[in-house]
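QA checklist item 7 of 12: single-chain prediction sanity check.
[x] sequence parsed
[x] length recorded as 703
[x] structure emitted
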Amino acid sequence: MWKTDFSGIQGKDPALACRVETVDGVPRLFIGGKETAPFLFFGNSEAENWEPVLADEIRMAAGRGIHLHSLVLHLPYIAPGTDWRQADFSHFQKVMDYCIAADPEALVFPRICMHHPGVDWWREHHPEALAVYATGKTGGPNIASEEWLKQETDALLAMLEYVRAHPDYDRRIVGYHIFPQYVGEWMSMNGHCDGVDLSEANRAMFNSWLKERYGTDEALSAAWGRRERLGQAAIPVPPNNVNFQEEGRGLFLDVEKQRDVLDVYDYISDLTARRIEELSEVIKRGTNGKSLVMHFYGYLFELGDPKTGHQALRQVLNSPYVDVLCSPVGYLDRLAGGVLSLMAPVDSVHAHGKLWMVEDDTKTHLEPPSTEDYGDPFNHRIETAWDTAMIHKRNMAVILSRGLGVWWMDLWSHGWLRDEGIWENIESLCAFYQAYLPQLKGGYSPEVAVVGDEDGIKAFRDPWNQAKAVLQQNMPALYRSGVSFGLYLLDDVLDGRAATDCKLYIIIGAYRLTRDKAERLKARLHRDGKTVLWLYGADTAARTFSEEVTGFRTEALPGERRPLLEGCHPEAYAYAVPVAPVYAVTDPDARCLARFQGTDACGFAVKDMGTWTSLYYGGLSLSEEAIRQAAAIAGAHVFADGNDVLIAGQGFIGLYARSEGVKTLRLPGRYTVYDEEGRPLCGPVSAFEATFRRHECRYYTYR
């Protein structure tokens, strides 16, 4: 296997030393030894006619105290045998000079675009390393290729040499945001559309991975249920046309008979995580650990399809070479009146000492209506200046309550942020964030833990649609439930790294438990008066440990159905098509809370387990009412009813009103309440009322 040669660069420090360090339970950003607020402006230096727009927005951001900028810089293609001094860094130089001219105090966290111009050369010389999908379509360079890794590494090392040769750049660059593959977010999105990659490079790497996992032909053959030889196995193709009733398995793969498909899913994410770590190591070793490294990754609650490669977050979190992870705002229900959904288990990310950054790519009212879907039809235009300001404020409530970072983005350099009024609002939000941060001492400590399982999600037969129903569609209800909740990986909860003393645990996607995980789960959660809500069961793919871990007897209802619960689910919560299996609670010791619509079958139940309490929820997506009911059973505080967007942290409440009217906010004790300027409003009180405009967002603190 090819190895990186650092001999020419080792020992050469960048001019600016940067790090992420956890202080009082919150990962903080340090630049040149000084703590720096994690606020950035992003400008697209690849867009058409970007120069005048970008210059104005950089100046506006700098005028409000934001001197940290994210800019797209090309990673130059380095032809074989070419010295880095011959590489074309003209775009790199142009963008850096332009930024410095607009903001002489600029610091830059460049987004290094790895879609290099050498793709035609690559196609000619390495056709074996191009992605070839199950549909027959041919893609670009394949991350499974060792030659791809070598080419990208050589280009990264050349870039570091170039930066070091230009002191005015070297003293300004704080780190590198590595930006490869589909839209730069480490997504194998062609896999979703066109199936898995069947190229020779991918087959060879997959067989190498199989050898690591199984070791012998006999072990591989036993796992796959057919005669196979290591080094010669073809890549199994996951099913695309789903028959829910096939072999009675319904929503799930047969975890015994389709071990080969599950291996493919594991491999895609493992490979992605490996490449993230390898390229991160290039930056870290090439800068003696002084430059930060950031990646888009870990979209568990947004990208459930394992063909995207985003289901190996725990591997990335264990890497010493990665400092920052990030994602855009969730794309479901993000408009006026909607929520800011975090795509990833961000509270697990912080528990590992990594900083999470939110990309606020709100398409503001400044986008011309005639071009509102330009390049991103999934991200619609905000209609008014009022709604733009309130959405930025809503988003910041989620960010500051956890101590996350954020960059404000003009995705296409259309002038989304080319307005002093927008930056004045952002400046006030940043000031509130910094004033509130000392109250986060000890880190974000919610009473409700939402726990996702990367391995379990891979068991879905139709993961793109089914996982989205289970993961993505649960997010709006959580934000509108009125509870304070954290987002975690199951492994971190079981290891005691995170969410050790929550009152309510909502388990999502634990569909393929191992004996080890089942035992760890029982040891961690079956005690201390904890309440556990099992969303759509646990271990339902194999049915091995289901009753053991949940405490409930359940049985599958005959046929297909839309699993809606009386009193919990409006029609909007229905999965698009009928599904099977749907499990009903048949346990005589359980108390039924809701039944499946049109039946006597119990779909939502509670059971006293002595040292803990178990809740079973048979629907795919939670409702606000069901979350509040579960919280009440667990003794977790509910700040508000009414389904407005509520964000709560230590002594902080942000409320974004879905409708106008009087809102009642309940506190977890008797406190004095303060407005955004720190002026007392009332108290000591246990609840207070306030009148809101439609889509108005307000912040309160209490102590």
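[x] summary fact logged: The mean pLDDT is 90.
[ ] second reviewer sign-off
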